[in-house]
Design brief:
The complex is a heterodimer of chains A (108) and B (147). Chain A has 108 residues and is an alpha/beta fold. Helices cover 31% and strands 24% of the residues of chain A. Chain B has a 5-stranded mixed β-sheet with strand order 1-4-5-3-2. In chain B, helix 1 runs antiparallel to helix 2. The chains are: A alpha/beta (108), B alpha/beta (147).
């Protein structure tokens, strides 16, 4: 299981929820906003259903209730789990690691 | 042009005594709008059983699960306003229940518009209290360019 990843190895941040149509869209919107605010550019932020996560995913953000399933599906990805859909500090930690060029740690 | 939210799928000052009842009502509005098949509502209820769709700011966004996406006819939302709130999680009440019908990535921008509005606590509060349908339409609507 991957524990950390350096921002230089990340091109796409995948936000995952069960169906991939509701909750993940809220989180995509927020994450994009936070990246803009931190002046972080060059990363794609997309949303996917947990069943459609590509096998070469590098960095995944998902709700805690899905993290086990997602890790099983893509063991090589760094998975950061959040519990709150709005303003979860786990997402702030990802954004600041991207902004500072420091390792992103798997969580939750 | 078709819009993702119409008067027909908005219910203000509704009464719901449980999360199940509110989810069902939001789902029935989606059926009325012609966005989903009736059985999509069962998927919405099942989703709440496994993982709550409460997102904060007094807002819940019930929707179906992956296997229910074939029951979506076109993208749209419904709005159920319960002024006294419905207990959604242990310490959280939802005042605005927004049913979501979507089965395609093409609609991400439309849903992002919705996300933008309800992320703001003041807009969420305004929508939870207003008695004007036009206020709801102004904040949540977006043209459905893929309809």
């Amino acid at each position: 299981m991957a524990d950390t990843i350096h921002p230089s190895k990340v091109s796409t941040i995948i936000i995952v929820c069960e169906a991939g149509v509701g909750s993940s869209v809220i989180v995509v919107n927020q994450t994009k906003k936070k990246l803009r605010k931190a002046n972080v550019e060059g990363y794609k932020v997309i949303h996917k259903s947990a069943r459609m996560v590509p096998e070469d995913a590098q960095l995944i953000i998902c709700h805690k209730g899905l993290s086990k399933m997602v890790r099983k599906r893509v063991p090589d990805a760094v998975v950061v789990a959040f519990t709150m859909f709005l303003n979860d500090p786990a997402i702030d930690r990802v954004v600041s690691a991207l902004a500072n060029g420091t390792e992103i740690h798997a969580e939750g | 042009m078709q819009y993702m939210l119409t008067e027909e799928t908005i219910s203000l000052n509704a009464n719901a005594s449980s999360k199940e009842e509110a989810t069902r009502m939001a789902g029935e509005l989606l059926v009325r709008g012609g966005y989903v098949a009736e059985s999509y509502i069962d998927g919405m209820l099942a989703r709440e059983e496994t993982m709550s769709t409460y997102i904060g700011n007094g807002v819940a966004i019930p929707h179906g699960q992956f296997d229910d996406l074939t029951l979506v006819y076109r993208t749209g939302i419904s709005v159920l306003q319960v002024r006294d709130g419905v207990t959604w999680e242990d310490n959280e009440k939802a005042h605005l229940i927004i049913g979501i019908a979507s089965n395609s990535d093409d609609h991400i921008n439309i849903l992002a518009n919705l996300a933008e509005a309800i992320e703001d606590p003041e807009t969420a509060k305004l929508l939870a209290e207003t008695s004007e349908i036009s206020v709801v339409l102004d904040h949540l609507n977006a043209p459905n360019t893929n309809a």
